[in-house]
Amino acid sequence: ATYQFAGKTILITGGAGDIGKATAHRFAANGAGVVLLDLNEAKMADVAEELKEYNVPVATFSCDVTAADDVAKAFSGAVQQLGQIHYVFNNAGYQGVFAKTDEYPEDDFQKVININVVGVFHVLKAAAQHLRDAGGGAIVNTASYAGVVSPPNMLAYGASKFAVIGMTQTAAKDLAPYGIRVNSLSPALIGPGFMWTRQTELQAAVGSQYFDANPKVVEQQMIDSVPMRRLGSLEEVANGVAFLMSEEASYITGFNLEITGG
Ligand code: NAD
Fold first, then answer.
1. CATH of 9-188+233-259, one of 3.40.50.300, 3.20.20.70, 3.40.50.720, 3.40.190.10
2. Which of 38, 188, 192, 204 pairs as cysteine with 16 (C-beta 3.0–4.6 A)?
3. Is residue 38 within 6 Å of ligand 1 at its C-beta?
4. Distance 186 CA to ligand 1 centre (A)
């Protein structure tokens, strides 16, 4: 299905990453203006360059979502440059290290929670304020299937994504009176991409009873756990974002869409 987003604007955090970039292409191809926020300025500039082919307005902001004032500045800069924002894709995230619970490092636990929970809160709050004042809109938070069934060796990441699904449910209730829908998206095994490669290598390296020590074998073990026996594509994740933002989802809020192949 192709949704029409002409004249609309989407703000995407983690806009330089795999899922953010695929979603930016999906929305720009359907006519939306795109605002990218990311820590990685070089990769973000590349994505902005690619988006030129669609002839839609594009803006980029260097932004650390863990800093509330960075987020506020990026939102006001975006409004100055592109006008009203209609959709916010709250997507920046960090996978954390892979370690068993008895060895999970304190500093990495804090880092994961800071980016995936506190950062998501900052963006959610700024989006809520902006969309409230604009008369409505839609927000999609990127959770993960790790926020539904938490995998081994990912204590912080699983916890952070359960929190994203929880924040989605509360925000959906709080913001319904303003005409703002809030949903979350839970991809499982998505590839090719940075997170897929990283997780197979790091799960192999942990040396747990759940995965082989060879990352190539881990890839197969993971794919064998999927009823559809394949990875999801970045485009299939972007399709989920497009649906949840679209008018076709006008009565859907507080929902977690699993994109998992079963
Ligand atoms: P990615 O690493 O390619 O992209 C993440 C982006 O977030 C990067 O560009 C990074 O620079 C940015 N980022 C990290 N910390 C930031 C911060 N503090 N402030 C601003 N930007 C920051 O990974 P991706 O696969 O595109 O991941 C996007 C989202 O999808 C994440 O929330 C991730 O947890 C989630 N997710 C991914 C998968 C997958 O398999 N790819 C599966 C489930 C969930």
1. 3.40.50.720
2. 38
3. yes
4. 13
